[in-house]
Amino acid sequence: MAAWNYCVPVSIILVACLVNTARCQAVQAESVTVLEGGTAHISCHLQNYDGSIVVIQNPRRQTLFFNGTRALKEDRFQMVLFTPHLVRISLTNVSVSDEGGYYCQLYTESTHHHVATLSVLVPPETPTVEVKQEAVEGGQAELTCVSPRSKPAATLRWMRNGREIPGDVSQKENGKAFSVFSTIRIPVERKDNGAALNCEAIHPALNDQKRIRHYRLDVYFAPTVRIVSPLGILREGDSLTLTCSVTGNPLPRHIQWSKINDTLPERAEISGATLQISRLSQSHNGTYLCQAQNNFGRAADQYTLLVYDNVSLTTMVPPTPNATQPITSHPVTQTILPDKKDPGAVVDPQSAVPYKAIAVVLALLVFTVICVLVVTIWCSVRQKGSYLTHEASGLDEHGEVQEAFLNGNDASQGKKEYLL
């Protein structure tokens, strides 16, 4: 009875009792968990060992060691320790196929054994991202994060700017491991191009660490074109450089320069996105076009060139009339300005006549014309009044002569000469 109390019955200890000798022997096996590719140590603890046969078997019940002697030719298994208290073997380069129960058996009058369970963890590799549907401006992107192999199945989640994006998760068996998939579908615009997304894999074998795949969102969109032109007025003899600024995804590889309704000038030189014309002349005037395209559309921009010469015009502007001074003319130089409708040229503020000065000149012209007309009319009226006065005086003298003649006066005495 005392011998029976010596052995404490627990679920993980198998007791082999030799009733006829009143002695009790026990064997206890330790379960172990190891990462795939690592080394597992399988231990069998013995109690009251009296030299009985100890056998260790693999999950397929093949004998590995018999009382410390190798029974199976498998170099990955090695006998590490064999004592009356502990038997230990090692298994290197563990794989999931090695997983299962390893038997520690003690042969007495009856066979007793205890199973050491070997568990193998397969940590996930860094997940990959598969593009299921291309991201086109105005559409949606469909991306799948894949963890090809893990045990137990890894947990996948999508993150953007610190926020989780819900995905559709699925998994399938891959031998004793699992493949896990997480798919997201998100609407995209041009501004989303280059946005950072992360796919994270979480697994107990990683010890609270994560395997993260960084992904840049690739949004495709049609190109945009803008011609960068020089400032100021272009005159004959100057040089012109136009640069075609192009965006798009993918970026257009070919940029085309042309001239609307005409061919490019002989002096035009094209280098990639740049058009250069040296020694400009007015024959180069016209509208120049830059075009670019990719698989998702095309775009164009145009520039209207107006080349001016350096000719100046001289006009005579009369001053305000004065009663004591003769009317004179003063030369005023007027610079020819480019047409305001010219969309391709920019007027140089230093070379243009201010609008206020033009208004003043026009006002002086109108005032001078009005003054000249008033003076002319006044002089004409004055001369006509003087003529009528002399004519009336002549008629009075003629009446006196007629009266003398009727009264019989001597014509010779009353003869007078009148000059009208």
TrEMBL record:
<dbReference type="Pfam" id="PF07686">
    <property type="entry name" value="V-set"/>
</dbReference>
<dbReference type="InterPro" id="IPR013783">
    <property type="entry name" value="Ig-like_fold"/>
</dbReference>
<keyword id="KW-0472">Membrane</keyword>
<keyword id="KW-0677">Repeat</keyword>
<keyword id="KW-0393">Immunoglobulin domain</keyword>
<dbReference type="GO" id="GO:0007156">
    <property type="term" value="P:homophilic cell adhesion via plasma membrane adhesion molecules"/>
</dbReference>
<dbReference type="GO" id="GO:0016020">
    <property type="term" value="C:membrane"/>
</dbReference>
<dbReference type="GO" id="GO:0061041">
    <property type="term" value="P:regulation of wound healing"/>
</dbReference>
<feature type="domain" description="Ig-like">
    <location>
        <begin position="124"/>
        <end position="213"/>
    </location>
</feature>
<keyword id="KW-0732">Signal</keyword>
<feature type="transmembrane region" description="Helical">
    <location>
        <begin position="357"/>
        <end position="381"/>
    </location>
</feature>
<dbReference type="Pfam" id="PF08205">
    <property type="entry name" value="C2-set_2"/>
</dbReference>
<dbReference type="GO" id="GO:0043184">
    <property type="term" value="F:vascular endothelial growth factor receptor 2 binding"/>
</dbReference>
<feature type="signal peptide">
    <location>
        <begin position="1"/>
        <end position="24"/>
    </location>
</feature>
<dbReference type="Pfam" id="PF13927">
    <property type="entry name" value="Ig_3"/>
</dbReference>
<dbReference type="InterPro" id="IPR003598">
    <property type="entry name" value="Ig_sub2"/>
</dbReference>
<dbReference type="InterPro" id="IPR013106">
    <property type="entry name" value="Ig_V-set"/>
</dbReference>
<dbReference type="InterPro" id="IPR013162">
    <property type="entry name" value="CD80_C2-set"/>
</dbReference>
<feature type="domain" description="Ig-like">
    <location>
        <begin position="223"/>
        <end position="306"/>
    </location>
</feature>
<dbReference type="InterPro" id="IPR007110">
    <property type="entry name" value="Ig-like_dom"/>
</dbReference>
<keyword id="KW-0812">Transmembrane</keyword>
<dbReference type="GO" id="GO:0044291">
    <property type="term" value="C:cell-cell contact zone"/>
</dbReference>
<comment type="similarity">
    <text>Belongs to the nectin family.</text>
</comment>
<keyword id="KW-1133">Transmembrane helix</keyword>
<keyword id="KW-1015">Disulfide bond</keyword>
<protein>
    <submittedName>
        <fullName>Cell adhesion molecule 4</fullName>
    </submittedName>
</protein>
<dbReference type="GO" id="GO:0035020">
    <property type="term" value="P:regulation of Rac protein signal transduction"/>
</dbReference>
<dbReference type="InterPro" id="IPR036179">
    <property type="entry name" value="Ig-like_dom_sf"/>
</dbReference>
<dbReference type="InterPro" id="IPR003585">
    <property type="entry name" value="Neurexin-like"/>
</dbReference>
<dbReference type="InterPro" id="IPR003599">
    <property type="entry name" value="Ig_sub"/>
</dbReference>
